[in-house]
Amino acid sequence: MDSRSADSPDSSEPPISSEPPAIPEDSLSSSSATSNTLPPDDVEAIDELGKVYRALRDELSKVIIGQHEVVEQLAICLFSRGHALLMGVPGLAKTLLISSVGECMHLSFSRIQFTPDLMPADITGTDIIQESAATGKRGFEYIKGPVFANLLLADEINRAPAKTQSALLEAMQENKVTVLGRTYDLDKPFFVLATQNPIEQEGTYPLPEAQLDRFFMQIDVDYPDLAAEREILVSTTGATVDTAVGVMGAAELVEAQRLVRHVPVGESVLETILNAVRECRPETSAIPEVRMHVSWGPGPRASQALMLGVRARAVTGARLAPSVDDVLALIHPILRHRMALNFAARAEGITVTQIIDRLCETIA
Question: Residues 256-309: pLDDT tens digits?
């Protein structure tokens, strides 16, 4: 598999240095929400987390050939405490990537194959009648469903009807589930990584806008290039197959999520995020293409995702503050599933990608 991004981790990561990188003065924000000071322990932790990310990427490269940009975006989702929707045709190792991430991070892993006959109880669990060995009396006992895992793979999520899809809404937003009036907290950290085939739509149930908005990113998985596919053939059809080993645990991942939220964000980056999201709304946009072709644009959750995403991307590169380049690198996966085109745009063959490309031209 390949990555066609010129801004891949291989080409953009800073050299490892014994001295922590300095925070550019013009990147510091005066906002209390983005404090411009980091404790020395956090500075050291950011540098260490950058090394951990590179180790994670190296381990995943043993089983996932290429796709560096996909791996980077997935890591950013995890460090930002967000869910991801992976879009790609069958056979591109989406499921293998997700299960390998669980192995590398020592996370409990659960898989649900979404089908039209899947019921909400098959996801959240349900009460069943059990007989007590001590008293002989019968009573209800709650049996947890597969949602009780650190990493939940929702395979082909659009194959199940809306009633079943909605079973994940509370879990994705509140990290808990409610069954028969009782609420149960989910394991921490908790991630939903869903897959979807963008081509085959017969017998599917498109995700509602409210659920799409709960996904931190839509990560598009593309075909491998010739060199990557050649390597796939050689490395996966022999007598031995490489496996990935763990590089961090669940507790370390929770600490990384805490660290990401402490990274300062400069005023220029903050203004870029605000302007980018607002320019995607036809009511407030100054871009003619947006006003003509966009039916509705992203809400504040998109701004929050960009804010966390650029912080996480800076941390994976062992940088103490994000830049506008981080916004440009993440604007497609964070915004593409939070916008809808009108009928005129679809009739003319306009795509969301083209609209976001036009937005990037105004930012660059």
Answer: 999 999 999 999 999 999 999 999 999 999 999 999 999 999 999 999 999 999
Task: Quote the number of domains for the chain.
Answer: 1
Q: What is the per-residue pLDDT across 8-52, written as a single tens digit (0 to 9) for each?
A: 444 444 443 434 444 444 444 434 345 566 777 788 888 888 899
Label residue 181 left, alpha or beta by phi (over 0 means left) and psi (-120 to 50 means alpha).
Answer: left
Radius of gyration of the chain (CA): 22
Rounded distance between C-alpha atoms, residue 71 and residue 6, angstroms: 14
The Cβ of residue 90 has, within 10 Å, a number of other Cβ atoms equal to: 11
> Residue 103 domain-assigned?
yes
- Residue-wise pLDDT for 204-257, tens only, equals 888 888 889 999 999 999 988 899 889 888 888 877 777 788 888 999 999 999
Supply the range of the domain harboring residue 175: 26-236+247-363
Give which of 359, 341, 244, 312 is closest to 79, Cα–Cα. Answer: 312
Residue 66 lies in a domain: yes
Instruction: Answer yes or no: is 273 within a domain.
Output: yes
Angle among Cα 65, 69, 73 to the nearest 5 degrees reads 120
170: enclosing H helix or E strand: helix 169-174
Cα separation, 205 vs 165, whole angstroms = 9
What predicted TM-score, i.e. pTM, was given to this entire model?
A: 0.83
Tell which residue, 217, 239, 262, 223, has the closest CA to residue 44: 262
Identify whether the C-beta of residue 282 lies closer than 8 Å to the C-beta of residue 294.
yes
Q: Are 337 and 73 in contact (CB under 8 A)?
A: no
User: Does residue 60 lie in a domain region?
Assistant: yes
- Output the DSSP codes for 289-324: HHHHHEEE---HHHHHHHHHHHHHHHHHTT-SS--H
Q: Strand 151-155 and strand 215-220: pairing? A: unpaired
User: How far, in Å, CA of 56 to CA of 134, rounded?
Assistant: 48
For residue 259, give the amino acid letter. L
Q: Which residues contact 319 (CB under 8 A, 6 or more apart)?
A: 14, 21, 46, 50
Output the six-digit token pair for 116. 């039209």
CA angle 16, 18, 23 (to 5 degrees): 80
Report the distance separating Cα 12 and Cα 5, nearest Å: 11
